[in-house]
Specification:
By secondary structure, the protein is mainly α. It has four domains: 225 residues, Beta Polymerase, domain 2, CATH 3.30.460.10; 144 residues, Four Helix Bundle (Hemerythrin (Met), subunit A) (Up-down Bundle); 195 residues, Beta Polymerase, domain 2, CATH 3.30.460.10; 128 residues, Up-down Bundle (Four Helix Bundle (Hemerythrin (Met), subunit A)). It has 43 helices and 14 strands. Strands 2, 3, 5, 6 and 7 form a five-stranded mixed beta sheet that branches. The longest helix has 31 residues.
């Protein structure tokens, strides 16, 4: 109060006006730092508004829509537009937050006012920017000559009319008709026009200036997510959702609503999309998808330790929303009354239609009102998007005052009670026939033994393996055990007897017992995982099986305990998805993380990769996935991750610096290609493979489009650096992928990112033969499709050059000898499956030599980058006999399969020299036929 009154005096406000509002302002400042800071920034407005009694009624009634529009229309330029929007937002927020936190108005008022604020500011900014864009680029025109305007769909709480006091806004941009602009200095197609308009609208709302920010804008719910076009025609949107839309996108579209722009056209768009969201018949086919969503929510709560998060944690707002929207998806096709976006209103519909018992509906309504009020209190304190309970006494004191509770203990008890009730309802929704409960392992007889071990009286001569008793004894001596709180101790006491039973039933050997107990020690501080395994005995059984078969899997899960979630769904663990499903899964996970939270995004990428590497390892270990499918799966995971890393890095760079000058941002994005070499390029990734990458870009303007413009070459280099940083930085979950960039032109001495022109020139004029050998296994794996196609064209042209066969043979043999000298096995009596004579490298060198030798005459030999299909082409053209080609394919698969199994058990790729002797002889004989003589030392 003192600081504000001094600021008000300095602004020329007389003492009487200041003192007349002292009680009101002190009440406001006591509960919210935001109210204090905003009042300091605008003292005259606050005093005037209080004097006029404007805060006595809701913001929507006190502030006419025309007033906002007139203020926005006065902007002389884009900078002025941004300033006006931010001042209007700050003043409206003061009004809304004051009434919410101090006057304790109903939830409906607050969310309605916030939604109206977002709609009015978005619509006003869009109208100003549209008029300005039409002056520059002409007016988009429909088939009948009518102007075409942008449709802005609001998703999530904005679409539902339930916006938080400090929330981002989820938007989609669309336009009704394709075509060309008319009347401007230059003609643009509608896609480019509305993409540019959308980019300017996002910047007007999202950019942080000296006056603050209007709203954080999240566009990731649009078709194809971050990699998709910013604005789509109605036809393109309808085609996407009807042909590619996933169940989670149906779930998201329940709340979609036109919130700005052409509302009439927006209504027509919603009519087009309704059949996608709501199916004509009761949609029981969606049940499994809903169960998957539910399982993902449950796993995220444990993995991210969200116990203090009242939105995302157990019993939080998200679970209430899931309960309601699951019923909407299932029944909304037959009951149009369920197509209500507002949660409180749809609860009443469900009660009226008999889809939810009255006590349950009312309990969920009360819980929702309480948790949303609590959420507003947390966010209104400092205008910050948070749903996490305070970590300090002041925060709790403010919460107690806002929520009208007696003290912190009473408020905590009420929160716990409400969340417990919500969790109960959430557990019941779309449950399996058994109510998702599992039979617990009967292991009570081991409880007394565990009690003796804990007390330091481990008995001898029991029926248990000595390694298990001694291992448990060591566990109780460790610091982590001694530091466990009472709840963790109770969970461990329930878990250990269950574990003993599982190990005995599996007849676990000492190595398996040791691996399992290392995991137990690792999760003592995250004891929720102990409960997870007790409640899911099949998951524990699967864990022991995997640990028995693979030291590598045991190390992976121990280092990343969040992977225990994967064991809950055994069928998914051993049934690999296709690449499109992987893309959709990662997109869903990343959409739940704010775009500016790079650390959170990096963790999510690592968790995604770990989860899928575990799945493929489990599948290979169980024999449900053949070698080639294993490599496909691992390669798809890497490609999906690389595309996501590119999207994230591009977003970061474009937000700061704009993008290299081009027709549109998408056109600039399309100029970047990520090329995979080696195992990635050859679709032969293993579990711990590095990624051999080369970054290339096409031609664009010389500078970027942003306020902090960069030379385009600097932009491309920093983009590459940002990607390498995201991939290779060690976080809590480790490194995403080790990256090797040495295969780029001039190796480590060369530019990190090369232009296509420079790459082509280097390959033609300066590259060594071994670099062209590497190019045989290269392919574009991520980036813009046009750039990827351009690389494939350059690669094909380079590889299909006519070559001197004598020099080529000499160069390839020389490089093979050098590799054998450096990498061949130095252990007597052992055979290195990859590097020794008769091993994998001999096969790869034969393939590369023959591909380079004959591609000029048979271009399809280098159509693919993997050894198997190149060998098939060589056999098809008679370059190799069909017998030799098939024999090398079979041998290659056999040796790679053994390497994979050794890797799963953390063993090097070597076996006793007598192993595979017949296979090695076949490779050596083939080498002699192809390369003219046996390798030296054969």
């Amino acid at each position: 109060w003192s600081r504000w009154s001094e600021r008000a005096h300095a602004a020329g406000i007389d003492a009487d006006r200041i003192s007349s509002h002292q009680v009101t302002l002190q009440q406001a400042f006591a509960v919210s730092d935001f109210l204090c800071k905003a009042a300091e920034a605008d003292p005259e407005w606050v005093v005037s508004a209080l004097g006029q009694g404007r805060f006595a009624q809701p913001w929507c009634k006190a502030e006419a829509a025309d007033t906002l529009t007139q203020s926005i229309d006065q902007a002389a330029d884009e900078a002025e537009l941004k300033r006006i929007l931010r001042v209007l937002r700050r003043r409206a927020m003061w009004h809304i937050v004051y009434r919410d936190l101090v006057l304790n108005v109903p939830l409906e008022e607050t969310v309605t006012d916030m939604t109206q604020l977002a709609e009015r500011l978005t619509d006003g900014a869009l109208n100003w920017l549209y008029a300005d864009a039409c002056r520059q680029w002409g007016t988009p025109t429909g088939p009948a000559g009518q102007p075409v305007k942008m449709v802005v769909l609001g998703m999530g709480k904005l679409g539902a009319g339930e916006l938080n006091v400090s929330s981002d806004i989820d938007l989609m941009f669309a336009f009704e008709h394709p075509g060309q602009t008319r009347g401007g200095t230059r003609q643009l197609d509608h896609s480019t026009f509305f993409t540019r308009l959308g980019q300017r609208l996002i910047q007007a709302l999202d950019q942080i200036t000296a006056d603050g920010q209007v709203f954080r804008v999240d566009m990731r719910l649009r078709p194809y997510g971050q990699s998709g076009a910013l604005a789509l025609s109605f036809d393109a949107m309808e085609t996407y959702y009807q042909s590619q839309g996933r169940e989670w996108e149906r779930y998201a579209m329940i709340k979609a609503r036109p919130v700005a722009g052409d509302r009439e056209a927006g209504a027509r768009l919603m009519t087009l999309l309704t059949p996608f969201v709501y199916r004509k018949y009761i949609d029981f086919g969606v049940l499994e998808s809903l169960r998957d969503m539910k399982r993902m929510i449950q796993q995220e709560v444990v993995r991210r330790n969200l116990s203090d998060n009242i939105k995302l944690g157990a019993g939080g707002i998200r679970e209430i929303e899931f309960v309601v929207q699951a019923i909407q998806l299932l029944r909304g096709g037959r009951l149009p009354e369920l197509r209500e976006r507002n949660l409180l209103r749809v609860l009443k519909v469900m009660e009226r239609e008999g889809l939810m018992a009255a006590p349950e509906a009312r309990e969920l309504e009360e819980a929702y009102r309480f948790l949303r009020k609590l959420e507003h209190a947390l966010q209104g304190m400092d205008d910050r998007q948070t749903q996490t309970l305070p970590q300090d006494a002041l925060g709790w004191a403010r919460l107690v005052r806002i929520m009208g509770e007696e003290d912190e203990a009473a408020l905590r008890a009420r929160i716990e009670d409400v969340r417990a009730r919500v969790s109960s309802h959430f557990a019941d929704v779309v449950a399996t026939e058994t109510g998702e409960t599992r039979e617990r392992v009967g292991a009570e007889k081991w409880s007394s033994l565990w009690g003796l071990i804990k007390s330091g009286n481990a008995p001898g001569g029991t029926e248990l393996p000595a390694s298990l008793v001694s291992g448990l004894d060591r566990l109780t001596q460790g610091a982590r055990f001694r530091q466990m709180h009472s709840q963790g101790q109770a969970r461990l006491d329930r878990f250990v007897p269950t574990l003993i039973q599982a190990l005995l039933e599996a007849e676990a050997n000492d190595a398996t017992i040791e691996r399992t107990l290392k995991l137990v020690e690792a999760i003592l501080r995250r004891s929720a995982y102990l409960s997870l395994l007790v409640e899911n005995p099949n998951a524990l059984k699967l864990l022991v099986e995997l640990f028995a078969g693979s030291a590598w899997i045991a190390e992976l899960i121990t280092a990343t305990p969040a992977l225990l979630d994967e064991l809950l769904n055994e069928s998914a663990l051993t049934t690999p998805p296709d690449k499109q499903s992987l893309e959709q899964e990662l997109r869903q996970q990343l959409m739940r993380i704010p775009e500016e939270d790079l650390e959170g995004i990096m963790e999510a990428l690592r968790q995604f990769r770990h989860a899928h590497v575990l799945r493929v390892a489990a599948s290979e270990l169980r024999g449900t996935l053949p070698l080639m499918k294993v490599s496909d799966y691992l390669t798809w995971v890497a490609e999906v991750v690389l595309q996501a890393v590119f999207d994230v890095a591009w977003h970061e760079m474009a937000r700061r610096h704009g993008y290299p000058e081009a027709e549109s941002e998408q056109a600039a994005r399309d100029q970047f290609a990520i090329v995979g070499y080696g195992k990635l390029g050859g679709i032969e990734l293993s579990y711990s493979s590095d990624l051999d990458l080369v970054f290339l870009h096409g031609e664009t303007g010389t500078v970027t489009t942003g306020d902090r413009a960069l030379d385009s070459s600097v932009f491309w280099t920093r983009l590459g650096q940002k990607m390498v940083h995201i991939l290779s930085t060690r976080t809590h979950s480790g490194v995403l992928y080790e990256v090797d960039m040495r295969l780029r032109p001039s190796g480590n001495a060369g530019l990190l990112v090369s232009s296509f022109k420079a790459f082509d020139k280097y390959q033609r004029e300066s590259a060594w033969t071994w670099e062209h050998q590497a190019l045989v296994r290269a392919r574009a794996v991520a980036g813009g499709r046009p750039a990827c196609d351009a690389f494939e064209s350059v690669r094909r042209t380079l590889l299909c050059q006519k070559r001197d066969p004598v020099k080529l043979l000499e160069d390839v043999r020389s490089m093979r000898e050098r590799m054998f000298g450096e990498l061949g096995d130095k252990h007597p009596g052992m055979f290195h499956l990859k590097h020794d004579r008769g091993g994998i490298v001999d096969i790869e060198f034969m393939v590369q030599y023959l591909a380079l030798r004959w591609a000029h005459d048979y271009p399809d030999v280098v159509e693919f980058s993997d050894n198997i299909r190149i060998l098939e082409a060589l056999g098809r053209h008679g370059i190799l006999s069909q017998e030799d080609a098939q024999q090398l394919i079979d041998l290659y698969r056999t040796l790679r399969a053994r390497i994979h199994l050794l890797a799963l058990d953390r063993q090097p790729a070597r076996v006793p020299a007598g192993t595979f002797e017949a296979e090695r002889e076949k490779v050596r004989a083939c080498w002699q036929r192809v390369m003219g003589a046996p390798p030296d030392g054969a």
